[in-house]
Amino acid sequence: MTALKLLAPALAALLAAGPALAQTYRPQAPAVTYREGMPEVNAPQPGVNPDAGNYASSSAFARWYASAGRPSMLLFWNRQLIEDASSQYDNVQTSRSSAVAMGEAAAVRGRGWGASASMGAAASASESRQYQERVTDSGYGFRDTNFSRGVETSILNTFLSAGAKIVDREAVIRKVSAKQSREDRLDIQYLETLALGQGVQYLIEVLPDDDVTSPTGVTFTVKVTHLPTSTVRAQFTTSGNPPRGEAKWVATNGAGFEKRAAASRQTPQLIGAQVAYDTMTKLR
């Protein structure tokens, strides 16, 4: 009886504390996971490389080039293989004059100028020059120098990156001219003909023309000739417009998202590379 009296208060206290203990030791619900073993946010898909097609063209060209025995190529940038086989020259005479002080007349005469003056008047000096100017030429003027050099350099580098053997026009002309007479050295067309016979397999002529209707402001006429057989492998025109990147969705202030086109990639370097890729496509 005494034991029951002692146990009753303890049991009553335990029953009274039950709800509190149940609340304190309630097990936590597991975190919600939609896909086990996956990241909370999927990584964005990689963007498409705008030059993927060009790289495929370069790889295909490299395979064709290797199977063809890596033939030598000569680039005529802004030059054309014209039908005239020899250079023609015109005699040109120019003259200019300017006023000089009386005390400078003697010094002017010493430099090859003619000087004359009346009493009390300022002296006048004149110079006459005679020279020959080549009128038969396969070169053409085009845009500013920096743009032209950027395009030409990029065309060469793109072919070199694909493993092509490019013969330098100036170097091979100098090489063949060393065995020619002084008169023959003045005949650029003749020297070019000799240069083409120095193991060159393919001649690539690239002629640029300003064109306001072109997306790049210029149109390139490209001609590829297989020299051993004198046959044309390709002739086409291209704007050299490099492919744009993907358009992107951009957040705007209060207007949600806006799809914006990729920035223009029309630099001289990328334009030149595109001309090279377009040429490779015709050769593979």
Give a structural overview.
There is one protein chain. With 284 residues, the protein is α+β, with helices and mostly antiparallel strands. Helix content is 35%, strand content 25%. It has eight helices and ten strands. The protein has helices at 2-24, 52-67, 105-110, 145-161, 169-177, 182-185, 188-196, 268-283, and strands spanning 72-77, 89-100, 114-116, 123-134, 165-167, 202-210, 218-226, 231-238, 248-251, 257-260. Strands 5-1-6-7-8 form a five-stranded mixed β-sheet. Strands 2-4-3 form a three-stranded antiparallel β-sheet. Strand 9 and strand 10 (257-260) form a beta hairpin. It is elongated, with a radius of gyration of 40 Å.
Stretches with pLDDT under 50, minimum 5 residues: none
Question: Tally the helices: what do you get?
Answer: 8
Determine Rg (CA atoms, Å): 40 Å
Kindly state the number of beta strands. Answer: 10
Distance between the termini: 109 Å
Structural class: alpha+beta
Helix content: 25-40%
Broad shape: elongated
The amount of beta strand, in percent, is 15-25%
Biggest sheet architecture = 5 strands, mixed
Order of helices and strands: HHEEHEEHEHHHEEEEEH
Let me know the average pLDDT.
77
- Work out the oligomeric state of the chains in this entry: single chain
- Order of the strands making up the biggest sheet: 5-1-6-7-8
Question: Quick summary of this structure?
Answer:
This protein has 284 residues and is an alpha+beta fold. The chain contains 8 helices and 10 strands.
List the helices and strands and how they pair.
Layout: H1 2-24, H2 52-67, E1 72-77, E2 89-100, H3 105-110, E3 114-116, E4 123-134, H4 145-161, E5 165-167, H5 169-177, H6 182-185, H7 188-196, E6 202-210, E7 218-226, E8 231-238, E9 248-251, E10 257-260, H8 268-283
Parallel strand pairs: 1-5, 1-6
Antiparallel strand pairs: 2-4, 3-4, 6-7, 7-8, 9-10
